[in-house]
């Protein structure tokens, strides 16, 4: 399973998605859809992002929030007009996901 690292005499496991999925399936004791496996892997914090690959370019990220924000940033830089038009229409249950650009 993953690569063990020693840090301040504590051992931390760095898991691959495959390692984490295997652990989830072992505990579940039954087959699960990949959506459910992913949900449980993320809920239990078994994996963390190490980078993001978009349009052939690698961006270092260490949290899921950074993945989200970097994706927004890259899409905005590559397609500013289309992104501004479509992104501000995305809504959650309570509010917009992305606020419109401030003028000025």
Kindly describe this structure.
The protein has 104 residues and is an alpha+beta fold. It has 2 domains: 3-43, no CATH class; 49-104, no CATH class. Helices cover 43% and strands 15% of the residues. The strands form 2 sheets. The protein has a two-stranded antiparallel sheet. The longest helix is centred in the last third of the chain and has 15 residues, at 64-78. The termini are far apart.
Overall shape:
elongated
Helix and strand composition category: alpha+beta
Strand coverage percent: 15-25%
Oligomer: single chain
Low-confidence parts, pLDDT < 50 over ≥5 residues?
A: 1-12
What is Rg? 18 Å
Biggest sheet, in brief?
2 strands, antiparallel
Q: Count of helices?
A: 4
Helix content: 40-55%
How many beta-strand segments? 4
């Amino acid at each position: 399973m993953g690569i063990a690292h020693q840090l301040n005499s504590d051992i931390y496991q760095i898991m691959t998605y495959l390692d984490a999925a295997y652990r989830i399936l072992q505990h579940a004791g039954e087959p699960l859809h990949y959506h459910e496996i992913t949900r449980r892997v993320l809920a239990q914090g078994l994996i963390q992002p190490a980078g993001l690959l978009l349009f052939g370019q690698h961006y270092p990220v260490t949290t899921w929030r950074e993945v989200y924000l970097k994706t927004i940033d890259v899409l905005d830089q590559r397609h500013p007009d289309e992104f501004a038009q479509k992104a501000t229409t995305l809504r959650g249950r309570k509010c917009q996901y992305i606020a419109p650009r401030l003028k000025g």
